[in-house]
Specification:
Low-confidence stretches: none
Number of domains: 2
Structural class: mainly alpha
Order of helices and strands: HHHHHHHHHHHHHHHHHHHHHHH
Number of helices: 23
CATH class of the largest domain: Mainly Alpha
Number of strands: 0
Radius of gyration: 23 Å
Length: 544
Amino acid sequence: MQPMALGTTLTLLLLIAFFGITFVISLSIGKKQENADSYMTAGNNVGFGISAASMTATWIWAASLYASATSGYTYGLSGPIHYGLWGALMILFIYPFGKRIRSLAPRAHTLAEILHARHGQSSQLLLAGSNLLGSLLSLTSNFIAGGALISMMSPLSFSTGVLLIAGGVLLYTLWSGIRASMLTDFIQVCAMLGAVVIVVPMIFFAAGGSSIFVEGAQNLTAQQQSFFSSDAFFNQGAPFIAAVLAYAIGNQTIAQRLFAVREDMIKQTFVTATVGYGATVIGVGMLGVLALYIGIDPADGDVNNLIPQLAAGYLPLAFLCVFFIMIIGSLASTADSDLAAMSSIVMTDIYGRNIAGKTGAKPQLMLLIGRITMIVATGMAMYFASSRFDILDLLVLVGAIWGALVFPVIASFYWNKVNNTGFTISVLAALAVFTLVRTGWLPLEGTVAIVTDLLSVVGIGVIAGLMIFGFFGLRAGVAAVVLAMLITLPFALGFLHQYPVLTASLLAYAVSAILCVVLSWFNKDEFDFDRIARHAGQFDTQNT
């Protein structure tokens, strides 16, 4: 396999063309007198087509394509399925909770803003802080993916690639916020889906077609050849089920689109995005399986290089350019969402609700703060990208951290007894337990191992219960909790602690759920949910 490089000139021309077009689009929707609310939520009135494309593009980021391929390369045939299928289903699980959230606060800007109205400052800042961290790590992952792509496919260095991607994304997002992100997402997702249909089959046939499954079978272990690999499930599938549910509930990039789409289009938007994400990510992930069969070693030992390596080795120049734009589009579509999300959090949750107060917030100052946030976040992500973390590890880590928030957040939107004390203590305790287990500071041995296995069973029940509850209500959700725990208990006891990544994620769900329920059960003050809409609303109308 002789890799083909794009060359410096062609690479720069492609980047200039891509980011130039997106910047022109951004300019076309900018306003002379900018509106802070529209900058964050696009007027809460975006239609189905743009919303579905934006949701799909935001969920299909370069990191998800690279990580799916990494999963295929590491775990074999079932790796991309475990990655793409669960990620797709989690988009579907968002919409019933999303409908509830929009009904409570139709004009909100962030989930943390709703928690401010529901509980107060500490709960709000916990969610806002975790979202800032998550979006920053997501932005870093996309810059890493872009730098790896450019350094692999051109003479330009990794650092130069990161700089070019960061500058291009910031250029067009800075101008119009979420509106620029969503409108350019529509174009980017069309490019991504079209490229996947063309590029993945071309690489497959250029590499040898179906014959590689016979000739390269010796490169795979028995687990890697199985569609029902237990190794893939416990190391990839199960932790990812926990992680992506947390992403679905705790991620401001998703919430921002939930607040932007027309309320009557929520279901159609998320169902369409489910199908688009699953097909695209599983398809691209199969390139990792292909690399495994062929026996390719990742360039420089970095699995983030697998997809660019295959493309450079097997695609003719014209289709290599198509592939390049596909990856640039996927990372840009999520990077701009991360910037828009972080700016909204700082504008709303730090300045708007805590520093100025709702009636004292100045929309024009909010816009300035939002744009400064984007610039600072871009600089920080570029710095962190220089460390070149493994993208798959970052995804699981951030998702597990958000796992501590999932039950308390959802419970706060449905159960009027959940209070600020229960929310805050349950989240902090879950984060502490997760950290101890995930870092290995708490050895999973002896009695500790048995206790963590039992709590992990509770975590499995919580995840199953939340999924069923969203669609079928409280009774079905409770039944799912009990059933899931009874089914898994005989197998989990004495076993689950062997998988510390999975155990840490499940513990985050279990500890937060148990403490939130216990601390809220005897609370005599019942919250009036109608208060949320009155306290989580537009900023501009308060100052006109």
